[in-house]
Amino acid sequence: MKKKTFLPLTLILAFLMQMLLVTGASAQTSEWTFMIYVCGDNDLEEWWPDKNVPELTSVGSTADVHFVALVDLMTLQDGVQLVHIEQGSVTVVEEYPELDLGDPQVCIDFVNTVKSLYPAQKYVLDYWNHGNAWDYVCWDEGDDNWLDNPKLDQIHNAVGYIDIVAFDACDMGQIDVYYEFLGHVGYIVGSEESVPLDGYPYQTLAQDLVDNPTQDALTYATEMVTNYGEYYSGMKGYDWAMLSAVDGSQLPALTTAFTDLTSEMTAALGQHKRKISSALRGAKKMSQTNYYVDLGDYLINLLEQRNLPASLVTATENVQTVLSNAVVAKWNGKKMKACHGLSFYWAKANYWKGTWSIRDIYVEQVAWGTATGWIGFLDAYHGV
Fold first, then answer.
1. Longest Cα separation, the chain
2. Within 10 A of 51 (CB to CB), how many other CB atoms are there?
3. What angle do CA 190, 194, 200 make, to 5 degrees?
4. Which sign, positive or negative, has the C-alpha torsion 5, 10, 11, 15?
5. Which end of the chain has fewer CB within 10 Å, C or N?
């Protein structure tokens, strides 16, 4: 593997500010800047130039809205490009030596550079690539590296408040992931399920933002979900697709409510484990796994169990209320009607303590599990 060369951010910024004079890019504050972290150094690379770029250039940036991407593709031959997307064309603002997009500092430098070049009232940061919930997102195959929960936390501690964080990647609509954005994000858009290869409908996403640049983050996060639903509901074979938007300001309340629920479930295990397990069997699970569980559907199934302790019922209903407040928009394909907008991780026994145990990785990487006591519940549930 080649040794990677990283340019200091100060040199990058100095050069890019000079490039503004050449490219005509404006450092005036716009309404929105939409940043896309294109980790395409893998089998998804063709979808960026062949589909997403034509969609975005059909609309392009304006004085009020900028579309900017950091693009890492296998075909760039050990190079990475920072591009500004205009109507009908893409301007390469800068080219770098090969970068590892699984390195959180690369994402931090990208966001900070874009904020300097294209300052805005509001920002979208879109993670583009494969995803697998709390396990990883943005796998850079050239460097065999990826972003995990601690790296996402590092990124968002460093770059400041982002109005909308979006995941054009599979399975990322999970509370175990979203907890990492606590205090750093307005809204989070992602799918509990797999995302089709077409990904986000960037033409309509771009057009809606350009047509109404003064819209607030709630409106646009909702519109992102609506556009996604309109795109895939009009195509055959995508009845398993779904997307939701979550209000980041509700994460503290959701954490508190889920912590109380975890405590009540742990206390009830001795007498009511069969009921707790029955609710799990009946709850909606994502297709690629049987351990990413829709939170809302589990709560419904749990409340259907008879003779639960009153305190457990109350805790369950409290989580339902907060979840309903947190999920501000959702679209479900026909096979996903039981989804309520957020999944959570419930490991099977052999993944928690058996042959393929990843308990130690989860404990190390997922702050949500520690903060809510969920790790302790899974230990008790599986007899660790």
1. 72
2. 16
3. 55
4. positive
5. N
Tokens of 361: 């990785």
- Give the C-alpha separation, 206 to 208, whole Å: 6
Query: 317: burial class by Cβ within 10 Å (0-12, 13-18, 19+)?
Result: middle
**Strands 30-40 vs 120-128: parallel, antiparallel or unpaired:** parallel
Task: Please check whether residue 42 is in contact with residue 139, taking contact to mean a CB–CB distance below 8 angstroms.
Answer: yes
User: Which segments in the chain show pLDDT lower than 70?
Assistant: 1-27, 77
Three-state secondary structure readout of 35-50: EEEEEECCCCCCHHHH
User: What is the token pair recorded at 331?
Assistant: 């679209």
With H, G, I as helix, E, B as strand and everything else as coil, classify residue 78. Answer: coil
275: which strand partners? none
Out of 3.40.50.620, 3.10.20.30, 3.90.660.10, 3.40.50.11970, the CATH code matching 9-248 is: 3.40.50.11970
How far apart (Å, rounded) are the C-alpha atoms in residues 43 and 49? 13
How far apart CA 83 and CA 369 sit, in angstroms, is 38
Residue 138 has a pLDDT of 97
d(CA 173, CA 287): 14
CA 175 – CA 251 distance, rounded (Å): 9
pLDDT given for residue 24 in this prediction: 41
Amino acid 142: pLDDT: 87
The CA-based angle 250-254-255, given to 5 degrees, is 120
8 Å CB contact between 66 and 34: yes
Hey, is 299 helix, strand or coil?
Answer: helix
Q: Please answer whether residues 153 and 173 qualify as being in contact, where contact means their C-beta atoms are separated by less than 8 angstroms.
A: no
**Burial bucket for residue 63 (CB in 10 Å: 0-12, 13-18, 19+):** exposed
Q: Which of 126, 131, 345, 350 is nearest to 228 (CA)?
A: 126
| Close Cβ partners of 31 (under 8 Å, ≥ 6 residues apart) | 64, 65, 120, 121, 122, 213, 214
Give the start-to-end residue ranges of the domains of the chain: 9-248, 251-382
Q: Length of the chain in residues, anyone?
A: 384
Q: What is the pLDDT of residues 215-246, one digit of tens each?
A: 999 999 999 999 999 999 989 999 999 999 99
